[in-house]
Amino acid sequence: MSVFHNILVAVDGSPASLHALKESFGLAGGTLAAIFVAPASGPEPGLGARPAAYWLDVQTKALAAAAELARAAGVPLKTIAAQGEAHEGIVAAAEEEVSDLIVVGLKGRDLPPAALMGSTTARVIGFSPRNVLIVPESAGIGFKRLLLPTDGSRYSHQATEEALRICRVSGGELVVLSVLDAPPGFVQEAPEVAKDWLDTLQELTARVQRRAESQGIRCQTAVLSGSAYRIIVEQARKVGASLIVMGSHGRTGIKRLLMGSVTERVVGYAPCPVLVVKRKK
């Protein structure tokens, strides 16, 4: 059984986007599509002052490269050429294709996290009601071991449901992590308050573990204190996570993503793909 049904991959001809596309081969049980949204007119941020004809040529070449990769792999691929704002075109196409997943590639690691993610990716995550999978150029997509950071919010609840579903389908293991995101010295300065919070997080992770094990999913938990994004990234490396599954703050998430949120930083520094799960209404 496939983990996902219809998948839309955003491509721009870059090695990162084509890597994400190749990693998506075999994941879709239904339709796999690749989209390139060319600027309709005038320059776009980060793209330079190029005429529309230039971007249409880039679009044609990028989609041809995507089609050739799929042909060589024997994978059916639908290519979509659109014009306008990149994130708007991707979000609209995902709705039209009834995609349950949008996949985007993440470029190299020599930039700060906000630049790593890119404004288009941040806006897709912020405005699309579909789940978004961000794939680093140096990592593959796998489901052997999922890391699930959770804080008990309604946003992380949806991520928990998706992580459990993926584990059931793929046979993967689950690592549930909760972080007391406190400033340095907090645990020492307010030990009773910290203990109450840590006890709450222990029970939270234990509840998820009980649910997972009742479904035949191997599961372990961890509760730690410190900088949330740093601990999530460190734990992903420590446990050898194939995938990090995180919740988002719905369609208003764009504001948080552009202001240094935990999700943005995890995406920027994670050693593996990150699945951002959107809350269903």
From TrEMBL:
<protein>
    <submittedName>
        <fullName>Universal stress protein</fullName>
    </submittedName>
</protein>
<dbReference type="InterPro" id="IPR014729">
    <property type="entry name" value="Rossmann-like_a/b/a_fold"/>
</dbReference>
<dbReference type="InterPro" id="IPR006016">
    <property type="entry name" value="UspA"/>
</dbReference>
<comment type="similarity">
    <text>Belongs to the universal stress protein A family.</text>
</comment>
<dbReference type="InterPro" id="IPR006015">
    <property type="entry name" value="Universal_stress_UspA"/>
</dbReference>
<feature type="domain" description="UspA">
    <location>
        <begin position="143"/>
        <end position="278"/>
    </location>
</feature>
<dbReference type="Pfam" id="PF00582">
    <property type="entry name" value="Usp"/>
</dbReference>
<feature type="domain" description="UspA">
    <location>
        <begin position="4"/>
        <end position="136"/>
    </location>
</feature>
